[in-house]
Design brief:
alpha/beta, two-stranded antiparallel ribbon, 6 helices, 12 strands, 30% helix, globular
């Protein structure tokens, strides 16, 4: 299932427009804050799909039965661009366990692009709800590599893949390589073009650089 939160007319789209707007996105603090706010909205929407159970809550004046989450998810972000997005999701799933993975595209000297997974730290994910997030979903290769690396350590009950801006080729790629019953895709926008270097157009640029500053190229 694909959930595109950018389709209805909501304040959500203002936050995405500010991520895209080149004059506004120069303010790194505001860029990170918008990533965080978008993460909070994704978390709220994902929470509607999860299991709940009744629990008695004691107040100073009595008791109340309320339906509360039956379990907590594992929130995993792809370093480094997803960190503010992760923080937004975590501010709602504040009891969640957390994982971090480094999966990125390596531009080789012969022009080929390879996917590297250099670092992975995760709690137990076997039979748990997994939220895997990265701001940009251009080809889907890095996301698939991260997902497979995590699944090597345990099989999630269900995976929620979160991306703010996606390209249709990446969506098709994930649907081809991951069983549809195993994941739900949450996006904020689906853009039309992809450059030969696999950058989304119009996109928003390099989310990691905009959030944290340019990195040394190697």
């Amino acid at each position: 299932m694909i959930n595109n939160l950018g389709l209805p007319n909501t304040i959500f789209n203002q936050f995405i427009s500010e991520l895209r707007e080149e004059t506004i996105q120069k303010d790194r603090m505001r860029f990170r804050k918008n990533l965080q706010r978008i993460g909070e909205i994704f978390a709220y929407e994902i929470s509607k799909t999860m299991n709940y159970k009744p629990r008695e809550v004691v107040t100073p004046l009595g008791t109340k039965i309320m339906n509360l989450p039956a379990e907590q998810p594992v929130v995993c972000s792809i370093l480094r661009a997803a960190v503010p997005l992760h923080d937004g999701i975590l501010s709602y799933f504040d009891h969640a366990d957390n994982g971090f993975i480094s999966a990125y595209r390596k531009h080789e000297k012969d022009g080929e692009i390879s996917i590297r997974v250099d670092y992975l730290a995760t709690p137990e994910i076997e039979n748990r709800e997994l939220i895997l997030c990265d701001p940009m979903l251009a080809t889907g290769s890095s996301m698939l590599a991260a997902y497979q690396a995590l699944c090597d350590l345990g099989k999630p009950k269900h995976t929620h893949i979160v991306a703010i801006v996606a390209h249709q080729d990446a969506i098709d790629f994930l649907q081809k390589n991951i069983s549809p019953k195993d994941f739900t895709l949450w996006v904020g926008a689906i853009d039309e073009e992809l450059t030969p270097q696999s950058y989304i157009v119009p996109g928003l640029g390099d989310a990691g650089d905009l959030a944290f500053g340019p990195k040394i190229q190697n």
